[in-house]
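Subject: for your reference before the review

Hello V.,

The reviewers asked for a structural picture of the protein, and I figured it would be easier to keep everything in one thread rather than splitting it across files. Below is the amino acid sequence we used in the manuscript, unchanged from the supplementary table.
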Amino acid sequence: RRRLVYGAIYSLTDLVQQMSSSKPSDGCLAIKTNAVTMHVFQSLSGFRFILTTDNKTEDMKQHIRHIYANIWVECVVKSPLYNPNKPLDSPLFVKQLNAFVETLPCFTSPLGTTSSMSMATGASSTSPSR
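And here is what came back from the structure prediction:
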């Protein structure tokens, strides 16, 4: 399922960039379907962060950039144990990500619609999606 989502995001991002006269300078893109909106951020290193919300949710650019700059970079990239060629195993990242997502206004209990976070990179064929 993760590979299917990654493939869809990769294809849709490529399509939007081909159709657009300008490239998103901030690396952020929102793709809205009938059921959900996928807020995508691609870092300069090729990691894609995808925040999936319902369609009523506001623009999540600042939140997804916060996840990248203040959680991912601080908890994973700066860790001496981080190896970009291996699957992500960072309990600190997961803990801080969950704590942050739970503070978002669009987050609700597991019984309702929730926001979810996944991550993928186009750097290898075995993407470390989480």
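For the response letter, the relevant points are probably these. DSSP finds three helices and four strands in the chain. The chain has a mean pLDDT of 76.

Happy to draft the paragraph if you're swamped.

O.
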